[in-house]
From TrEMBL, chain A:
Residues 429-438 have a biased composition (Basic and acidic residues). The lineage of its organism: Eukaryota, Metazoa, Chordata, Craniata, Vertebrata. Keywords: Repeat, WD repeat. Belongs to the phosphatase 2A regulatory subunit B family. InterPro entries: PP2A_PR55, PP2A_PR55_CS, WD40/YVTN_repeat-like_dom_sf, WD40_repeat_dom_sf, WD40_rpt. Residues 429-451 are annotated as: Disordered. It comes from Vulpes vulpes. It comes from the Eukaryota. PANTHER family: PROTEIN PHOSPHATASE PP2A REGULATORY SUBUNIT B (PTHR11871). This is Serine/threonine-protein phosphatase 2A 55 kDa regulatory subunit B.
UniProtKB/TrEMBL annotation, chain B:
Residues 1-21, 107-126 are annotated as: Disordered. Residues 28-75 form the SERTA domain. GO terms for cellular component: nucleus. GO terms for biological process: positive regulation of DNA-templated transcription. The lineage of its organism: Eukaryota, Metazoa, Chordata, Craniata, Vertebrata. This is SERTA domain-containing protein 3. It comes from Vulpes vulpes (Red fox). Pfam families: SERTA. Residues 114-123 have a biased composition (Pro residues).
Length: 498, 198
C-alpha cells in the first residue's frame, strides 16, 4: 500500500508548496457543537474522503474526475451550428472506466461544464446519520452519538463500505450509487399501485431507464454491546475479513459478517479497579501482517501483539517505551507522555506515536527508543499548569503519514498544523484559516515566538487560541493532498505541482 | 476562559520560570497545593450525564497520587471509577471525596494503619466500591451473552440502596491529626471548603 500510484510525488513536507484548495463548512463564528468534526479519513484510493462529527453524522466527499476535456466540433456550416460536444472523462488515477461508469462520467462532465479544468475537487457525495444519541438506562448515562472513528474497507465491487463507531457501537455502512430505475413492471403501475394479476393479458420485460444519480447509505451490520468502556479505535485487518475495536481496557476482534460475537484479545482491566493506573488509548492492525497489531497506553508505552501466540494477547510480543528524561520530570510527565494516536507506516516497517508535545517514529525492530522524535509545540512545556487547568492537556491529537512515508503531519493549537519531512529533517508550521483561503493561494509558514522580541509575522505563545485545535488530519494515500479538520470546517490543501 | 485562568496562574508560571533552578520550599508548597486544588476540582467536575473519560480520570488520579507523595503523604490509593459510571451522583461524589479524604486522613496518621473510613460522609461510601467491579463484570458478561438475567442480579450488593440514618459528620479524632492550625489541618479545612462549595 505504499504510495506507488503517486505519479512521482516528491519527497515530502518541505519540498512541497502547499496551497489552499477548498474549505467545507459554515462560516459563522457561532459553532454548533454537533458540527464539530471528530474524525477524517481518506479511502484506499483517495477518491473518497469521509468526515464524522459530534452530531453523529457522516459526510462523504468525492473527488471530481479531473481533466475533463471538451472539444467542440462544428459539423454544420450553413448557419446552423449545433455544437457537437465530444467529452472525454479521464480518471486521474488512470484506471479504465468500466462501461457502465461511462454514463455517470458523462453526467459528471456535464456538472463541470462551467469549469472545464476542475482540479479534482472534493464535493459532497453522501450525507447520512450514522449514530443517534442513546441512553443507558441501567447506568443512567447518556451515550454520545459523536463519531469517534471512521475506517474504510477496501473496495471490492461498485459499492463502498466503511465502519463508523461512537463510544459503544460500531456500524458497517454500505454506500452505493443508483443511476437507473426500472420501468414497465408487470405487477404494478407506474404509480406503484398493484395491478390485478388476473387482468394481465400480456407480459413485458421491464426496461432500465437512466435517472439522476442517487447515492444511498444503508447500515449493513451493527456491532453492539461488546464494550463496557468507551471505544477509541477501530482498525480493519489486512485480511479484509476481520477488524479490531479497542476501548479503554479491552480490545475485541470481530468478523465483518458476524455481529453477535466478538473475541476479546486484550484485557487490561485489573481484578480490583482500585488498582487501575493505565488505560488503552489507541490500537491498530499491521498493514500487511494480519496476525500483528499494536496498542498504546496512557503511560506512553506501546505493545505489539501477535495473535498467533495465544488467544488472549495479554502478553505482548514487543514492548516499546522510551526511558524518561529525569531532568524534565514534572507532575505532568505522565499526562504528557500519554499516547493519543498510533499509526503504522504504509511500509509496515515503522510506527508513529503522538503524545502531547511530540511525535515519535519507532522502528518495529527496536523497542528501546524511537528512531525519530519531532517536537510539535515544545513552547507549551512551560504552560503545562494552565493547560492542565483548562483541560487542554487531555486533548488527543492524531497524526498521519504521507503516502510514501517520507513525511508526517499532526495538528496543534491556533489552527496550526505541523509537517515533518523525514528525509530533509525539515519541518514547517502551517495554518488553516479562512484568511488564507484564496484559491490556490500558497500557505505561508507560521512561527511561534517563545520569548524575547517578537518578530513581525510571528505569534506569541500567549496569543495562541487554545480553542482552535486541529486534532484530526488525513493525508491522501497516493498524492500530496491533505485534509485538515479545524473545529467545524474541513480544509483541503494540495501541493502546487498537483 | 483561557485568559482568565492564565491570569490566575500566571504568577505560578512566572514563579516556575524564574525560580526554575531554585524552588524555595514555600513556592513549591503553594504550587503543589494549587495543583492539588485543581485536581480535586477536576474530579468533582467530571461527574455529569455522560460517563466521564476513564483515561482522564486515571491520569488525574495518578497525578493526585504524585502530589500526595510530594506533600509527604503516604500514598494509599483507592480509585473509585465505578461509582462515576453508575451515574449515581450523590453516591459517587461522596464516595470519591470520601475516598480521597480517607487517603489523606489515614496517610497522615503514621501510627494507625489504614482501616475503614473514620469520617464517612454517608453509609453508602463504605459499600459502593465493593460491588462495582463485580457489577461491571456481570454487566460485560451479560453484554457478551454469557450469563442470564438471574446471574446478573445475584452479583449486586443491595446494601447500597438500603437506607440507614446518616451519622452526623463526626469530629475528626485529635490523635489522627496534627494540632489544629498546623499546615495539614488548614489543608484539610481548605479541601472541605471546596467540597462543600462554600
Amino acid at each position: 500500500m505504499a504510495g506507488a500510484g503517486g505519479g512521482g510525488c516528491p519527497a515530502g513536507g518541505n519540498d512541497l508548496q502547499w496551497c489552499f484548495s477548498q474549505v467545507k463548512g459554515a462560516v459563522d463564528e457561532d459553532v454548533a457543537e454537533a458540527d464539530i468534526i471528530s474524525t477524517v479519513e481518506f479511502n484506499y484510493s483517495g477518491d473518497l474522503l469521509a468526515t464524522g462529527d459530534k452530531g453523529g453524522r457522516v459526510v462523504i466527499f468525492q473527488r471530481e474526475q479531473e481533466a475533463v476535456v471538451r472539444t467542440k466540433c462544428r459539423i454544420w456550416r450553413d448557419g446552423v451550428l449545433p455544437l457537437f460536444a465530444c467529452i472525454l472523462a479521464v480518471r486521474y488515477a488512470a484506471t479504465a472506466l468500466p462501461a457502465e461508469r461511462w454514463g455517470s462520467g458523462l453526467r459528471e462532465a456535464h456538472r463541470n461544464k462551467s469549469r472545464p479544468h476542475s482540479r479534482g475537487e472534493y464535493n459532497v457525495y453522501s450525507t447520512f446519520q450514522s449514530h443517534e444519541p442513546e441512553f443507558d438506562y441501567l447506568k443512567s448515562l447518556e451515550i454520545e452519538e459523536k463519531i469517534n472513528k471512521i475506517r474504510w474497507l477496501p473496495q471490492q465491487n461498485a459499492a463502498h463500505f466503511l465502519l463508523s463507531t461512537n463510544d459503544k457501537t460500531i456500524k458497517l455502512w454500505k454506500i452505493s450509487e443508483r443511476d437507473k430505475r426500472a420501468e414497465g413492471y408487470n405487477l404494478k403501475d407506474e404509480d406503484g399501485r398493484l395491478r390485478d394479476p388476473f387482468r394481465i393479458t400480456a407480459l413485458r420485460v421491464p426496461i432500465l431507464k437512466p435517472m439522476d444519480l442517487m447515492v444511498e447509505a444503508s447500515p449493513r451490520r451493527i456491532f453492539a454491546n461488546a464494550h463496557t468502556y468507551h471505544i477509541n479505535s477501530i482498525s480493519v485487518n489486512s485480511d479484509h475479513e476481520t477488524y479490531l475495536s479497542a476501548d479503554d481496557l479491552r480490545i475485541n476482534l470481530w468478523h465483518l459478517e458476524i455481529t453477535d460475537r466478538s473475541f476479546n484479545i486484550v484485557d487490561i482491566k485489573p481484578v480490583n479497579m482500585e488498582e487501575l493506573t493505565e488505560v488503552i488509548t489507541a490500537a491498530e492492525f499491521h498493514p500487511h501482517q494480519c496476525n500483528v497489531f499494536v496498542y498504546s497506553s496512557s503511560k506512553g508505552t506501546i505493545r505489539l501483539c501477535d495473535m498467533r501466540s495465544s488467544a488472549l494477547c495479554d502478553r505482548h510480543a514487543k514492548f516499546f517505551e522510551e526511558p524518561e528524561d529525569p531532568s524534565s520530570r514534572s507532575f505532568f510527565s505522565e499526562i504528557i507522555s500519554s499516547i493519543s494516536d498510533v499509526k503504522f507506516s504504509h511500509s509496515g516497517r515503522y510506527m508513529m506515536t503522538r503524545d502531547y508535545l511530540s511525535v515519535k517514529v519507532w522502528d518495529l525492530n527496536m523497542e528501546s527508543r524511537p528512531v525519530e522524535t519531532h517536537q510539535v509545540h515544545e513552547y507549551l512545556r512551560s504552560k503545562l499548569c494552565s493547560l492542565y487547568e483548562n483541560d487542554c492537556i487531555f486533548d488527543k491529537f492524531e497524526c498521519c503519514w504521507s503516502g510514501s512515508d517520507s513525511a508526517i503531519m499532526t495538528g496543534s493549537y491556533n489552527n496550526f498544523f505541523r509537517m515533518f519531512d523525514r528525509t530533509t529533517r525539515r519541518d514547517v508550521t502551517l495554518e488553516a484559516s479562512r484568511e488564507n483561503s484564496k484559491p490556490r493561494a500558497s500557505l505561508k509558514p507560521r512561527k511561534v515566538c517563545t520569548g524575547g522580541k517578537r518578530k513581525k509575522d510571528e505569534i506569541s505563545v500567549d496569543s495562541l487560541d487554545f480553542n482552535k485545535k486541529i486534532l484530526h488530519t488525513a493525508w491522501h494515500p497516493a498524492e500530496n493532498i491533505i485534509a485538515v479538520a479545524a473545529t467545524n470546517n474541513l480544509y483541503i490543501f494540495q501541493d502546487k505541482v498537483n | 476562559m483561557v485568559g482568565g485562568l492564565k491570569r490566575k496562574h500566571s504568577d505560578l508560571e512566572e514563579e516556575e520560570e524564574d525560580e526554575k533552578w531554585d524552588w524555595g520550599p514555600a513556592g513549591l508548597r503553594s504550587y503543589q497545593q494549587a495543583l492539588l486544588r485543581i485536581s480535586l476540582d477536576k474530579v468533582q467536575r467530571s461527574l455529569g450525564p455522560r460517563a466521564p473519560s476513564l483515561r482522564r480520570h486515571v491520569l488525574i488520579h495518578n497525578t493526585l497520587q504524585q502530589l500526595q507523595a510530594a506533600l509527604c503523604l503516604a500514598p494509599a490509593p483507592a480509585l473509585p471509577p465505578e461509582p462515576l459510571f453508575l451515574g449515581e451522583e450523590d453516591f459517587s461524589l461522596s464516595a470519591t471525596i470520601g475516598s480521597i479524604l480517607r487517603e489523606l486522613e489515614t496517610s497522615m496518621d503514621e501510627t494507625e494503619p489504614p482501616q475503614n473510613p473514620v469520617a464517612p460522609p454517608g453509609p453508602q461510601n463504605e459499600v459502593l466500591p465493593q460491588p462495582d467491579p463485580v457489577f461491571l463484570e456481570a454487566l460485560s458478561s451479560r453484554y457478551l451473552g454469557d450469563s442470564g438475567l438471574d446471574d446478573f442480579f445475584l452479583d449486586i450488593d443491595t446494601s447500597a440502596v438500603e437506607k440507614e440514618p446518616a451519622p452526623a459528620p463526626p469530629e475528626p479524632p485529635h490523635n489522627l491529626f496534627c494540632a489544629p492550625g498546623s499546615w495539614e489541618w488548614n489543608e484539610l479545612d481548605h479541601i472541605m471548603e471546596i467540597i462543600l462549595g462554600s
